[in-house]
Amino acid sequence: MAKLAVLRIPMLLAGVGALAACSLAPDYHVPPTPVAAQYRTLGPWVSAQPADQLSRTGWWKIYNDPQLDDLEQRLLANNTDLAAAYAHYRQAKAFVDQVSAGLYPKVTASAVPQRDRQSDTRPLRAGGPDDYNSATLSGEIDYDLDLWGRVRDSVVAGKDEAQATQADLASVQLSLQVQLADSFMRLRGLDQQTQLLTDTVAAYARALELTQTLHGGGIVSGLDVSRAKTQLSSAKSQLSQNLAQRALIEHAIAELTGASASEFSLPQKTAPIALPVIPVDLPSTLLQRRPDIAAAERRVAEANAKIGVARAAYFPSITLSLQGGVQSSVYAGLVSAPNIFWAIGPQLVQYVFDGGLRRAQLDSAKAATDEAGARYRGVVLSAFQQIEDNLSLLQDLSTALEQQRDAVDSAQNSVDLALNRYRQGAVGYLEVVQAQTAALDAQRGVLDIQTRLLSANVQLVKALGGGWSSEELASAAQAPALVAVSGVKG
Q: Which positions ≥6 away from 403 have C-beta within 8 Å?
């Protein structure tokens, strides 16, 4: 019999271990999302698992502008929204440590030296001294067997949330970097507009002098002088409006880089920024690097794990407890065999009636998983839309830029002809004004399209998840860190 009992102990421990390894969460699968065979504008590409752990450091350097590089570095060091997102990520990591503590035994120790006095009128008082000492040294070990995986699924959910929060941090960082780069492109576009309008004001001022000279010689009427003055004042007004718009963007850049708008300034630069080519035909690992997609996918996994937590609530909670110590009414010889006390045994707690609480919690967990899945699919579809939008913009705006440059050439030719005919007295100044206005609009149109092209280029970088390098893409398949966001349940 004794041998049989000894044989049963390992079997019992093995059974407990098997139960402790189970999880009541459903098998996790990344929600299916409609995926086209190729981009409508460019293609082909193939689907891949999320690979959000690759670095995005320095993607803006493709624009080869030292000032932009300096501003981006200042953003990383000083932006308040980025600092807040990082603090939130640290909170999520700390929460994982909190829930992970439930996987280990809890050990407590106490020392209670005290002087007691019994009440003279205490019910059922059985005599004994009125005043006495009580000295207790004790310790206790409690361990939740977690047979149904409640604690482990809570840890899994916490880790998924921490990964999602890490992706949120990357998303905030990328969004801020893109916002800064886009603002910088628009600022440089306004600088070019300022230079154009400054040159235009100077040209209109010379034209006004010409009309005044001709009017003084009795060749043209005062109407031409008035038109020239109107045109010059209008150009000056456009220049002032342009400077006001530039100031607002400069203030926005100051806020992004953590500087005071009152003390921040950027010198005017008119050198053009070359439009880099974005390799959108790379493997879709690049597409899946989007941090918002990774965050949405991790939150689906988190919600799935919480279903296991809700299901585990239907089963009893079993805690093994061991406590012991020494206790005596005298301090001398406190730590001795006669003063030892101990207790050992399991504690089982089971809800008998909860008014439908656990059923509601499970329904809520399932609905949260459905919601997270729908949001994930929405984020993925939105990502595809953003890529298509910016690819279309880049393609169509490139065509529009060439057409607009042709319009500038034609408009400038019209200005030259109108001025020559005006000097010869063949036409009035109204024709010159109309030709010059059309030329200015055409030139500003070129600068506007160039700025919009750069903005679409920056937004495409964001839509693709940030920067890249051939080395990163080559090592993506071997990177162990990718498992963290691949949707594979451990």
A: none
Q: Which residues lie below 8 Å from residue 41, measured CB to CB, with a gap of 6+?
A: 388, 391, 392, 395
The winner for highest mean pLDDT among 8-12, 125-129, 339-343 is: 339-343
Q: Which helix (H) or strand (E) holds 352?
A: none
The pair of three-digit structure tokens given for residue 236, joined into one six-digit string: 């000056």
- Bridge partners of 106, per DSSP, are 142
Residue 463 CA, chain-centre distance (Å), reads 13
Q: Is residue 400 assigned to a domain?
A: yes
Three-state SS sequence of 436-489: HHHHHHHHHHHHHHHHHHHHHHHHHHHHCCCCCCHHHHHHHHHCHHHHHHCCCC
Q: How high is the pLDDT of residue 276? A: 85
Helix (H) or strand (E) run with residue 285 in it: none
Per-residue pLDDT of 157-203, as tens digits, reads 999 999 899 889 888 999 999 999 999 999 999 999 999 999 999 99
* CATH code, domain with 287: 1.20.1600.10
Q: In which domain, by residue range, is 328 found?
A: 20-115+131-485
pLDDT digits (tens, 9 = 90+) for 444-453: 999 999 999 9
Q: Report yes or no on 286 lying in a domain.
A: yes
The answer to whether residues 89 and 165 touch, using CB atoms and an 8 Å cutoff, is yes
Instruction: Please count the structural domains in the chain.
Output: 1
Note if the pTM is more than 0.85: no
Q: Considering the domain boundaries, does residue 5 fall inside one? A: no
Instruction: Compute the distance between CA of residue 269 and CA of residue 187 in angstroms, rounded to an integer.
Output: 9
Residues 410-444: pLDDT tens digits?
999 999 999 899 888 888 889 989 999 999 999 99
Question: Do the Cβ atoms of 134 and 116 come closer than 8 Å?
Answer: yes
Q: Given the structure tokens 């154009």, which residue do they identify?
A: 196
Sign of CA dihedral 269, 270, 271, 276: positive
Handedness of CA 461, 466, 468, 473 (dihedral sign): negative
Within-domain flag for 176: yes
